[in-house]
Write a structure and sequence with these properties.
mainly alpha, 16 helices, two-stranded antiparallel sheet, 311 residues
Length: 311
């Protein structure tokens, strides 16, 4: 029964990660860090090494499954895929129709999470402060990069997957936003909606290569420079709030592959000037409510996790 409860919770955490990865600006890695499964995720990915893969050659599948923490990965990936295939339409709808409450919710969620993670640092020094500042500055810079026009060739779909997955496992750096910068976000989302197996298979292959390589780098940093790395990851989350700012003025539009006009470039503006510049209500009350809900949700998850551990 405890096993069912454990992997049932992992499945739910996977759903949360998948929902986050759909949104440009929110990182699935942030959700993994918040949910307390970040280190286990890295360890499980790193278990895909040559020694363990050779077990498949001799058909020792059960042993291989145990070594790579198969139950955990299967539960998590099932949750992520469930979320991507069932919530992609919902998230897209909220982004188009109710963007201000949605971005406010994620802002609250990410900010409180970053502070809760920083609270775990017991020994503060100049190196930790510099790591937080560097992470914040880097994420702020990345979120200010403009989208580019890139090839629609299949080889670039593979490359985009390898790059985006590195961001997806980094808290604060959104894999979806990296896809947006690379000009591949809409194409991949459309492939999900259209069940385009070839495009998704190439993208997934790129993700596999990228994650098996990059996870080892992150694991090494956490092992050798744990406190500074936690500071850096928290900085990534703090800096990503630049992209999550709810009130934006679109400065440039582009025509999508479906012939629809969609935002291309935007800048953050104050809610006090939003109505004048955009011609829509700033929805400040909804924004504050969604922001506080995001904060409350993380605090509730923290409390629930501690209760489950005690039980």
């Amino acid at each position: 029964m405890d096993t069912v409860k454990k992997y049932g919770l992992t499945y739910l955490k996977g759903i949360a990660m998948g929902a986050a990865d759909i949104v440009p600006g929110v990182s699935g890695g942030s959700i993994a860090l918040i949910a307390g499964i970040y280190q286990e995720l890295l360890d499980s990915i790193n278990a895909f090494n040559l020694d363990n893969l050779l077990l498949l050659k001799s058909f020792r599948i059960k042993e291989f499954y145990a070594r790579v923490n198969g139950n955990f990965l299967l539960s998590l990936l099932t949750g992520i895929m469930t979320s991507i295939f069932t919530l992609s339409g919902v998230i897209t709808y909220l982004m188009e129709v109710h963007p201000i409450p949605l971005w406010s919710f994620f802002s609250g969620l990410i900010l409180i999470s970053a502070f809760l993670i920083l609270k775990e640092i017991k020994k503060w020094n100049v190196g930790v402060v510099l790591a937080i500042a560097a992470g914040t500055a880097f994420a702020w810079w990345v979120t200010n990069l403009p989208p580019t026009t890139t090839p629609d060739d299949y080889w670039f779909t593979f490359v985009a997957g390898a790059i985006a997955i590195c961001a997806m496992i980094l808290p604060g750096i959104s894999g979806s936003f990296i896809l947006l910068i690379l000009g591949q976000y809409e194409r991949i989302l459309q492939a999900v909606l259209d069940r385009d197996i070839l495009t998704l298979a190439l993208f997934a292959s790129g993700c596999l290569v990228g994650i098996l390589s990059f996870s080892r780098v992150v694991s090494y940093l956490l092992r050798k420079f744990h406190t500074a790395t936690i500071g850096l990851l928290s900085g990534f989350m703090l800096g990503s709030v630049n992209e999550l700012w709810p009130w934006k003025l679109v400065t440039s539009w582009r025509t999508s592959s479906s012939g629809k006009e969609v935002p291309f470039l935007s800048e953050n503006i104050l809610p006090s000037t939003f109505a004048e510049k955009v011609g829509e209500l700033p929805q400040v009350e909804w924004a504050i409510g969604a922001f506080l809900f995001g904060i409350g949700l993380v605090i509730f998850i923290e409390w629930l996790a501690s209760k489950l551990q005690q039980g």
